[in-house]
UniProtKB/TrEMBL annotation:
UniProt GO MF annotations: acyltransferase activity
Domain N-acetyltransferase: residue ranges: 7-172
Enzyme type, top EC level: transferase
Protein name (database record): GNAT family N-acetyltransferase
Keywords: Acyltransferase, Transferase
EC number: 2.3.-.-
Organism superkingdom: Bacteria
Entries under PANTHER family matching the protein: GNAT FAMILY, PUTATIVE (AFU_ORTHOLOGUE AFUA_3G00765)-RELATED-RELATED (PTHR43792)
InterPro entries: Acyl_CoA_acyltransferase, GNAT_dom, N-acetyltransferase
Length: 180
C-alpha cells in the first residue's frame, strides 16, 4: 500500500467489485476508456477484473485501487500492464470517478507510480495510449512529464467505430534528468 497525502493506493480485493461496477456505469468517465474493462455490470465480471488487476502484479505491473485517505472506498484505479521484459517497457492506465476530477488525484498517483516503476520495477519506458478526444488524460500525462509521440490511426475498435489513439511516453533517463 502507498499512503499519499489525502489518498491511498492499495491492492484490490473482492470488496472492490461494486466500485468497478459503479465506475463503469459512469458514462462520462468511461467515454474514452476503451473496450477492455469498461463493461463491468455484474459481480462475476467485477471479480474477473479484480483477478486481472492482481495477476498484473505477477507480471511486473499491477493495478492499484485509489481511495481517499480517510476511507477505504474505491474511487478509481491506476496501474501498469502489458509489461515487455525484453524492452523493459510497460503501459500505464487509469480512471477516476468523475466527482473527483480536477483535484490532482491522478497526477499525484502518476507521479508516485512513475517513481516506483523506474526505481523498483526497473522500467526503461512507461507509455500511455489515449483516445485522441480525451483532453483531460492528455493534459495529466503532459503535466506528469510524458511526451506525445504520435497518433495511431484507427487503432482500436469501439462500439461507435474505430478510434485514433495517441501515444505518450516517459523514459527513465528523462525522469532522472528532466532536462533531457
Amino acid at each position: 500500500m502507498f499512503d499519499l497525502i489525502n489518498i491511498k493506493l492499495r491492492k484490490p480485493t473482492y470488496d472492490d467489485g461494486n466500485g468497478f461496477i459503479a465506475i463503469c456505469a459512469e458514462k462520462e468517465t468511461m467515454r474514452y476508456y476503451g473496450a477492455a474493462g469498461s463493461n463491468i455490470t455484474t459481480e462475476a465480471q467485477a471479480k474477473n477484473q479484480i483477478d486481472w488487476c492482481l495477476e498484473e502484479f505477477n507480471n511486473n505491473g499491477g493495478r492499484w485501487i485509489i481511495t481517499l485517505h480517510d476511507s477505504d472506498e474505491y474511487i478509481g484505479d491506476i496501474g501498469f500492464h502489458n509489461y515487455d521484459a525484453n524492452s523493459h517497457k510497460v503501459e500505464i492506465g487509469f480512471r477516476l470517478k468523475n466527482k473527483y476530477w480536477g483535484q490532482g488525484i491522478i497526477t499525484k498517483c502518476i507521479k508516485h507510480l512513475v517513481a516506483h516503476g523506474f526505481t523498483n520495477n526497473h522500467y526503461n519506458r512507461i507509455e500511455a495510449l489515449v483516445d485522441e478526444r480525451n483532453q483531460g488524460s492528455k493534459s495529466v500525462l503532459i503535466k506528469s512529464g510524458f511526451k506525445y509521440e504520435g497518433t495511431l490511426r484507427e487503432y482500436e475498435l469501439e462500439s461507435d467505430g474505430y478510434v485514433n489513439l495517441e501515444m505518450y511516453s516517459l523514459l527513465k533517463r528523462e525522469y532522472e534528468n528532466p532536462t533531457t
